[in-house]
Amino acid sequence: MTFSDMVERWKGGSDGFFNFLEDVKPVVRCSKGGFTPFVPGPRERSEIVQALDGDFSTVVFSWPRRHGKTATSIMIILWRFLTRRTENVAIVANSEKQVVDTAFRMLRDAFENTPFLKRLTDAGSIDVGMDAIRFPATSSVIQAFSANPSALWGKKLTAAQISELHAAKSDGVLEALTGSLIDTEGSMLLIDSTVGPMSSPLYALYQSHLAGDDPSLFFSHIQYSDLDDACANSPPWIDRARLRAASRRMLPQRFALFHFNRWGDASSLLIASDALALCTANSYLPDPKALAGGASYVVSGGLDRAFGGSKHGDATVTTAVIMTVVDDEEHYFVLDSDVVMFSRLAGIKANLKRYHRDWGMTRCGLETYGAQDVYDWAQAEAFADGTELITPSRKVQYQAFTLLATAAAEGRLHIDPRFTRLIEELKCFEITDDGKETVGNEAIPKFGHPRGKHDDHVYSLAWAMFATREITLNPYELPGVRCTDTTAARTMCALNGGALIPLCAGSCRSMRKAFDLFDQYAERSPRNNLSVEVFISEKLNTGSHTIAR
C-alpha cells in the first residue's frame, strides 16, 4: 500500500483517525520507560469518536491527570497534519517551557521514535525543528507558540492546541486563537485541561456546553466521585495501588482536584452551601430594636458602585446591616440589599439617608472606586464620623471576607430569604489560590465570582460589615444608675457591685430597667438559666452611677 493509499484510508472522521493509529502506531512515552504506541482507553475512545464525528470547531478534553488528554490532542493534530494539505497548526501552552517540554516534545517524540514517521523524516520529506515541524509536499506546518496573544493575532490557522486552559491569566489567548481559526472551513481548536476555578475561561466553556447554546462546541468532561470510582474506571495504564498510595500522601483537596477532576475541588466557596442554608433559614422584620432585643447594636451601611452602563451588567448596590450581641457573640442581620438604578448619585444618597433616618445608621463603608463624590457628600451628614473610603486591595478584601465567612460559618450571619440576589451571588462566590500576592510566607487568595455571574451584593455586604470592625458592643446597657437609698443596703445591691436584689428594687427605676433587659435576655436565651443577680454582674453594663449622700 502506497503512502497515498494510506492517506485515503485515514481520511474521514473517527474511523479514519483510528485507522491512522492502527497503521502508523505513533508512540508516546511509556510509564515503564521507553515508548509505546498510543492506544486510548475504552472511555476515552468513546469520547474521541463523539468529538471527531460531530461538526465541532472547538473540542475540549477535560480529563483527570494521566488520562492522556494532551496525547489525544497531539495525535489528532498529527493525524490532520498528515492527511490534509496546507495545515497551519499552532501548539500553545500557558508557559513557554511547557510548550517545548510537554505538547511539542510529544510531537517530536512521535516523529523520532515511531518507525513509520522516522522514515519520513530520514528521507527529508518532513523537517522536524526545535519549535516547528514542516511538510513541504503539502505546504503544512506545526509551530509552537508561547501564550502571548500578540504573537497569535493575525495568524491564519487551520488547527490549534492549548493545554491547561484553567490556568490562563485572561481570555487573551483563547480570543486570539478563536479569531485565527474563524475563517477557515474545517478548522479545529483542541483544548486539553483539568478543571479550574469557576472564574476561569475553561468554566465559561463548560457552562456554554451545559446550556447547549454553542453547537460548534464539544466538551468531554471525565470525573470520578471518589477513590473507588477512580480505581474502577481509570485507564488501564494507571496503577491502582499507586493511585491509592498517592491519596494518602497528598492533601485531600489537591488529590481530588488532580485525580477526580471535579469542578468543586478547583476552588472553594466563600460560604459552604450548608452554612449558607443556615444563614438564610429564617425570615425577620427589618427592625433593629426588635432584632437586638434590648441589647446594644450598631447599624452600618455599605456601597459597591458600578460604572453607569457597565457592559458586564454590574450593578451599584447599597446594603444595611445591624450588628448586635446574642449570647455574648456579635451577630449580623441584613436589613437591606438594594440595587441603585443607573448608579445615580441621587439614588445612593436616598438609600443612605433612609438607613440613617429609619434605622439609625452610624457607620458606612464605601469602596473607593467611583465613590469619592459619595464620600464628599457624606461629610455633611449626621453619619459623617463613621463613614470611610475602603481601598479594595487583596489584603483588605481578605480581612473583610474573613469577617463575613467566619460569621456565616459560626451561624452569626442572618440573611432574610427575600434578598434573593444576594443569596444567589453568595452561592457561587469563590476563593482561588493563584499565588500572585503574599504577605510573608502566606499567600493571599483571590476573591470573585464565576464567569457570567456577579458579586456586587456580596461586596456591598462585606464593606458594610467591615465598617464595624473597630466597634465592640456591650451585650446589655443601662444609660446609668441613679440610687436614692442612703442605708447600708445600697452597698449590697447588684447594680452597685453587690450580689443581692434589695427590697427597694420595686421602686427603683434603674432596677426596673435592669429587670426589663433581663426578661428580654431570658426570652432570647431560654437555655441560659442565669439568675438576675448573675445577669447584672456578668452581662449588664450599668454605665455611670449617681448615689445620694
UniProtKB/TrEMBL annotation:
It comes from the Bacteria. InterPro entries: P-loop_NTPase, TerL_ATPase. It holds the Pfam family TerL_ATPase. Residues 56-197 form the Terminase large subunit-like ATPase domain. This is Terminase large subunit-like ATPase domain-containing protein.
